[in-house]
Amino acid sequence: MKTGMVNFIIGAFFIILFYQLTNAQWEQTDGPGSGAVNALMVSGTDFFAATDSGVFLSTNDGANWKAVNTGLPAKTVVYSLAASGIDIFAATKNYGVYRSSNNGAAWSAVNTGFPLGSTIACLTMSGVDLFAGVNKGGIFRSLNNGLNWAAVNTGLPDTVTVNALAVSGIDLFAGTMSKGIYYSNNNGFSWSALNSGLPGGTSVLCFAQSGIDLFAGTSRGVFHSTNNGAAWSVPTSGLPDSSVNSLATSGSYLFAGVNGVIGGGVYLSTNSGADWNLITGLPGVRSLAVNGAYVFAGMDNGFVWRRLLTGVSVKELPGLRGNGPLWEFTLPNRVHSAVTVAVNLPRSSAVSLKVFDCFGRELVVFANGNFGPGTHAVSLSTRSLPSGFYFMRMQTSTNILVKRFLKE
Fold it and tell me: The domain 328-407 is classified under which CATH number: 2.60.40.420, 3.30.300.70, 2.60.40.60, 2.60.40.2550?
């Protein structure tokens, strides 16, 4: 029992330290603070959050939030949101779809055609038609703003759960639980599998589109298609072997949210998913969105974090590929009495290399000075460090990078 408690406390310190060392440019907003933030949606100048305790609204870029749940069942879990004109639709657990025509001030059920007690995992608009992905129920469609619904499941596996829906022109894409991706080019009347390049049994959790590029966040990372889903490829660099729950785009930036204690956080790619770099180590990322000047991350703990997009630049992000070398340092995962760290700099900079223990205490300063551009080998003695886990932090004039290692 004591050993288990010690391990838990040490693990908690690792998480707290990683927060402190990697999240300097992110700020936590004041809410919503009420259950996991499952989805974020921009509607005009308003910003909505779907949470495990209903819907919340911010009118000031997420700085403040208020509950807008009148008409929703108490503490309703809301998984997804969609907007059409003045109407907002909420996908709920066990209560089907709700609609608001006054910016969330009041909601009413619009469930005619759904099986009783339906859980709706996702919503999307295609023109004036509304589509809903249903837990173990496939896809339903409404042609009259949610008043009536009908199943449109021809070609889909029986009782499939649809986690995500996306629209590209006249094409619809459905991401399913363990059955990959399905496609319709006739407004949902029929569906066909588009799984070339996807491993069997892949669950698709989210989609994002940028120009001709279509991205799918899955239980096996991010997959990329440049031919409307006919074939998929997986990036090879930078993402952990974890589920990607959310994707968001802004210009050439593609953000991916990974939910996990190990490797969890927000990742960024600027080359269509070929390479990824961690830009914050926040564990428990559930949703992402770009709204105005900010990129937002909705968390398992019920809060939304944000950072300015203007601060997300190639020269500022750790390890990001630009036209020259990387801001990066490399070291083995396991070290003994000594280790050589390779420091890569695209230009001259002040550099410090420091080691911290799991309590966040600074132990050793291995380097602290000015380095020129290029790759530098810094040899470090670790004889004085007891066996255990440590963090090494490299700080330059514009970057902070943190990596964990084990002293054996």
Answer: 2.60.40.2550
